[in-house]
Design brief:
This protein is mostly helical and 98 residues long. It is 50% helix and 0% strand. The chain is built from three helices and no strands. α1 packs across α2.
Length: 98
């Protein structure tokens, strides 16, 4: 039995833009060297990524002094492995007080 090819399902719908918005979008799509359709697709994808990130930020665990202390304990633990030369702190380095 031959393998079925996966065909993306692209929906079509009319999009009404204010004339000034459409003109700006057309101008920028030309500058970017892409079609207006591609430009709008990327713009919507970027907006969705931003909104999804905001939702993730709202759902993640809140920063507390206890969580900061736990993270610092992990970051400051001794590994017994010497850092590579390019990772060593320069002579005279002093960390900022916390």
């Amino acid at each position: 039995m031959p393998a079925k090819s996966k065909k993306s399902n692209v929906s079509k719908f009319p999009l009404r833009l204010m004339p000034s918005v459409r003109q700006d979008a057309e101008n920028f799509s030309e500058k970017e060297g892409v079609s207006l359709n591609q430009f709008i697709n990327v713009a919507v994808a970027e907006k969705l990524a931003h909104l999804q990130h905001e939702e993730w930020i709202a759902r993640r665990q809140k920063v507390t002094p206890e969580r900061i202390a736990q993270a610092m304990k992990i970051l400051n633990r001794q590994t017994g492995i010497e850092p590579a030369a390019e990772d060593r702190l320069p002579p005279g380095y002093a960390p900022l007080p916390r």
